[in-house]
Amino acid sequence: MALNNTYGARPVQQETAVGAGIQLLLLALLGTAIGMGPAGWLTGLVFAFALWAVLSRALHRSRLRTFGPANRVTLGRAILVGGVTALVADSFESAPPVTLLVGLTAVALLLDGVDGKVARRTGTSTALGARFDMEVDAFLILVLSVYVAMDLGPWVLLIGAMRYAFVAAARVWPWLNAPLPPSTARKTVAALQGVCLLLAGADLLPRVGNLGVVLLALGLLVWSFGRDVLWLWRTARAAGTATGAATDEASLERELQDLVPVPVSVSERQPVG
Asked: What tens digit of pLDDT does each residue of 96-106 get?
């Protein structure tokens, strides 16, 4: 049985290896096109290895038998994000190829809604796929915030770091891990982060315009996270109050049972023999 499970997992693991190979090919094309420096190459290689290692481990733990078409779309987006990451790292050493960076980012953002639709139409929605999609989105926002911060200042990093700060806070306050209700507003705000950062990074607007766009994105993100945290806190508080009330009621019932003698049935009062 163990051999069958291992054999069934091979095609899934092979897809992650193919993804890593495509990532390396993209890095080679970018390096040839722009003469990418050591920082870009090193960052791109680290991203490729980390993507392969983390995704392979996640697939092994989830025991998926097939990778699925939706995950292939997300993997393609992750490969594009790896290219964007390498270009942003390279921009610390030389002038960034803005057109190429914007093009890769735009395609990655456009494909953001495709994997979810593919998963629903093919009936291949999984918890791993949803988490994979979310992590790719979060990392792209982080990379874009780093790029824009080089022009507008380090405060822009708050946009990319906010989701990771939330995850870290959830380790301290477990009530933050509770599931949130679906929200169109939350999805819209999340999608706008990439669009606003891409617009600022493309440098199509004057600096004041870029500043306004990024401030708007940050304000919406703070509002969205604040609303969700408040909802989680109220829900946890209400659950704690209900649990406390149930505990108090049970304690009161036990005390009453100790004070009031239990009625003895007629048969129990009859002497034996």
From this structure: 789 999 999 99
Residue 157 and residue 145 in contact, taking contact as beta carbons nearer than 8 Å: yes
Does residue 264 have a pLDDT over 80?
no
In the structure encoding, which two tokens stand for residue 219, read together?
């304000």
All structural domains of the chain, each given as residue ranges with its CATH number in brackets, are 2-240 (1.20.120)
Q: How many residues does the chain have?
A: 273
Reference 54, options 9, 16, 11; nearest CA is 16
Q: SS3 string of 73-130?
A: HHHHHHHHHHHHHHHHHHCCCCCCCHHHHHHHHHHHHHCHHHHHHHHHHHCCCCHHHH
DSSP secondary structure of the chain: -HHHHHHHHHHHHHHHHHHHHHHHHHHHHHHHHHT--HHHHHHHHHHHHHHHHHHHHHHHHHT-S---HHHHHHHHHHHHHHHHHHHHHHTTTS---HHHHHHHHHHHHHTHHHHHHHHHHHT---HHHHHHHHHHHHHHHHHHHHHHHHHH-GGGHHHHHHHHHHHHHHHHSGGGGSPPPP-HHHHHHHHHHHHHHHHHHHT-S-HHHHHHHHHHHHHHHHHHHHHHHHHHHHHHHHHHHHHHHHHHHHHHHHHHHHHSPPPPPHHHHSPP-
Contact 141, 197 (CB under 8 A): yes
pLDDT tens for each residue of 70-102: 889 999 999 999 999 999 999 998 887 899 999
